[in-house]
Amino acid sequence: MGMLDMDLTYPDEVQRFAEAVRAFVRAELPSPTKDKVLRNAKLSREEQVYWQRKLCERGWACAGWPKQYGGAGFTLMERHIFDNTIAEEGAPTPNPFGEGMIAPVLFAVGSDTQKAEILPRIRTLDYWFCQGFSEPGAGSDLASLKTRAVRDGDEWVISGQKIWTSYAHFANMMFCLVRTDPDVKPQAGISMMVFPMSLPGITVRPIITMDGSHSVNETFFDNVRVPASSLVGEVNKGWTYAKLLLGYERTGIAGIGHSKRVLRQLKQLAAGQATGSGVLLDDPTFHSKVAAVEMELLALEITALRVLAQDDPPGLEANLLKIKGSEIRQTLTELCVDAVGPYVLPFDPNRGVGLSESDHIGPSEAAALVPAFLEARALTIYGGSNEIQHNIVAKSLGL
Amino acid sequence: MDFVPTETQKMLRDMADRLVRDRYNFEARKTIVGSDDGFSRQIWKQLAELGLLGIEIPEEYGGSGGTFADIAVVLESFGKGLVIEPYLSTVVLGAGLILAAGQEAQKRDLLPKIVSGDMLLALAYTEGQSRYALNHVATKARRDGAGYVIDGHKAVVLGADTADKLIVSARTSDAIADMSGISLFLVDPKAKGVSMRVYVNVDDRRAADIILEGLKVEASALIGTENHGLAPLEATIDRGAAAVGCESLGAMGALNALTLDYLKTRVQFGRPIGAFQVLQHRMADMVMAEYQARSMLFLAIDQANSKDAQARAQAISAAKAQIDSCGQVVGRGTIQLHGGIAMTMEYVAGHLFRRLIALEKMMGDRNYHLERFAI
Prior knowledge:
The structure holds two protein chains of two kinds.
Chain A: H1 12-28, H2 31-38, H3 45-58, H4 76-88, H5 96-109, H6 112-124, E1 129-132, E2 148-152, E3 155-163, E4 173-179, E5 190-196, E6 202-208, E7 214-227, E8 231-232, H7 238-253, H8 256-271, E9 274-275, E10 278-279, H9 284-309, H10 316-340, H11 369-376, H12 386-396
Parallel strand pairs in A: 1-4
Antiparallel strand pairs in A: 2-3, 3-7, 4-5, 5-8, 6-7, 9-10
Helix pairs in contact in A: 1-4, 4-8, 5-6, 5-7, 7-10, 8-9, 8-10, 9-10, 10-11, 10-12
Chain B: H1 7-23, H2 26-33, H3 41-49, H4 68-81, H5 87-101, H6 104-115, E1 121-124, E2 140-144, E3 147-158, E4 165-171, E5 182-187, E6 194-200, E7 206-217, E8 222-223, H7 230-265, E9 267-268, E10 271-272, H8 277-303, H9 309-338, H10 348-361, H11 366-374
Parallel strand pairs in B: 1-4
Antiparallel strand pairs in B: 2-3, 3-7, 4-5, 5-8, 6-7, 9-10
Helix pairs in contact in B: 1-4, 4-7, 5-6, 5-7, 7-8, 7-9, 7-10, 8-9, 9-10, 9-11
């Protein structure tokens, strides 16, 4: 019995809401999509958009947005239940870049025109955003970014290069940090812009990661001309907005609903693995490792609830959620790999997607495990490496 | 325990290192991985010419009569260089088992061919339900006239697709998890009743699941004594565990060198990232992990051919578990200290990390060896 199955303590109306969400997902989620999600495999653009449209139809898209911008208008508890339930049921994680990252910045500092044009299209995923932050020379030291934007009449002209641009190959929009003043301290000369990926001079080159998948890219800007109205908020204030945005990104990386699902999958996997004396889940050594990560996750879930309950944007909590959430996710993928035995060795970059039961090599779950483990190594790197997160926490303590 | 390499070992290491340097750069390896055989026959021939396939095989069978410590330096070089030729399956496991248990006729037939590079072997001992337990054998061999008929399913058999002969563990008596009643057979992979599903492992080496259905073998296919195959099999897999430990140390050394170099050259916040204490400490932990792993490797090498099965099991399991743990410290640390670049297929670190993961899962994983040591 998992400690995180706390539904019993929820009031009746909350449980009814959870049931409604579950019934909705089961009725509307295409099974190939669900299979991919459960295998942590990459969804196609079409699959992601299809699901977003289903959420829109039901009025449940953009669960975290205020009602005035087309959000679901959930109570805090509903939001929590919703996120967890869709994750546990194997529904796609909502695209974080638009809905979870640039949208809150636009709520705060976007122009009325930007809000009116962009937000409804993020909601329907007509606008798929990617994030132009990191550069080859600006990783942890993000403020050292060199991509330039120079004003020319009613336009900005952008030159430079971004890297690790997730889903740039799916995106039709980018929010981007650019240097607009090279003569001041790095943080004071950065602006944030939003513009279409179809502009002349933008080139996207794929990067294949060691799990064999394509999710990140390099993005090149060769004198790309964007209209002045692309600027978000004020010029040279981009670093402030970036910090706000990163707070939301880091909170999202915690992936609590995702981890709860993986924990359940881990237990199922371990319960199906015979050992000399029984099944692996009952092996005391293995079981205590599972219990330890389960408790960490329970603590993090309650932490996340506390963050949801506060009015201010996440501060220190974002760093905590990012550090602990990424560590938990890594531990879970490690335990999944350990659970399977020798059948973890065959490598399938497609993670066993679309194979019939008899086509799998060993247990049907096996093919997904090592790629997920490899991919999860990036969790402690992106969104600001965990070392950087520790620095921020220490700084906030006055150290 | 001998901590200082002999002249022979220095020579063997130089030879292997040179081959890796000249023939196995990142691009060349990519071509080899994608080739039909999944390894290079040409390089295999070269290994034979250099005498690297017969290091441990006695002179009477065409080899050099060396020790496991001699082979260890070659394995370490192959781990560092990400070599995927079927050295583990043929030279360490295959030849090792024939030497440990083979009839004289089998030794005279097979060993010289292994030395000359004309015989590839694969050892089929894992099964779907067995995890890492060597005695957990469901494959059955029943008497049929003078010979046997074998039925069963072998899992994740390293190097099976290109092997000229398979060595198969099968039950000739007793129940599925008993320690007795296991026999070993030499099987022609082309024979009627053998089918294979071939795939690529996480370290780019190939393996296969093998279905044996009504496979007929002659009495002469039996390796060693009927019902007494477990002891030589265990001895061979212990050698295998020591061998993957050597490869792990090679990979760890390469990863630590890459990471140290990166810390000194990658600049962020106006200084090399190696100037940051938190990264220095992690690097220090990685180097200490490699050091500790090498200490255990000395133990494993020392005990790899021990006839005292219990002492050998203790030493090998301690070494394998410790080396696997250290490998994770080094591998994960490398990715984290590099950042995104080490996540990509275009950079060698990820390939070395994948090698470490595969090595950890071969010949018994950390948990298996922890428990085996604790008994």
